[in-house]
Amino acid sequence: MPDPSFLLLQSLNGLTYAMFLFLIASGLSLIFGILGILNFAHGSLYMLGAYFTHQFVSLFIDAPGQFWWAVIFASLTIAALGAVIERFFLRHLYAREELYQLLFTYALVLILADFAKIVWGTGQFSVTRPALLKGAVPILDQYFPTYNLVIIFLGPYIAFTFWFTLLRTRWGRKIRAAALDREMLSSLGVNVNRLFTVVFFIGSWMAGLGGGLVSPVSAIVPGMDVEVIINAFIVVVIGGLGSFWGTFLGSLIVGQVYALGILVFPRHSLAFIYILMALVLIIRPWGLLGRPLQR
Fold this sequence. Notes:
The protein has 295 residues and is mainly α. Helices cover 72% and strands 3% of the residues.
């Protein structure tokens, strides 16, 4: 049996990865829950969030808190890009078959991947951790990075803030109403098109935020979008597509399976998560906290 302190450290690594996954998968789940679109390009927005964070860090080199300013500007840039994509392209595909939407978002994956290669090349980039979070904290007889610990606490805070916004604010009530009956909401005088743009803006912002926050702990390279979108889809399948707390639960499960599964079968650790996803699809196809789709 591994040392208990090592198991705890590995579990904390799984929680860190889970929080990054939650930021990305929650935006993906939000867009599907309201707009009904499976956005394959969501991982590309995450990747651009990491690249833009690297770019803004170099611009704010002498500014105090440069990393946090870079993350803020990068995530807002990605959110604005998402709003433009929804307003000028996706809006014309809502009335068409789902196949057109899937093909368009897949085309975006190819376009944004080439855009990143043209602007930043195919090399590897990294971002330095914030000065105040460069150290490590002792946990039992092990040391855990301070930045990762902040991410573990930041994830639930963002989740609670997001949930409170959806539940208690006027915009949140409109968003939930649009998920239930967009035609009725439109008949009540709500500008549904503008609401959809806001939803895509928020979902894209969460993808960009995830990319910005992951930049100090992961290499920024072309192709990072494909890996993360696969894991994000696994999260929403396990938790329930369109379910906010299901996404949070799915992220925790996937993070722990990845972190602890490697201790049991190092060569086959990646298989555990696919086996788990297959079991969920067989036993409860709509996810752990999701609801069956009404046709």
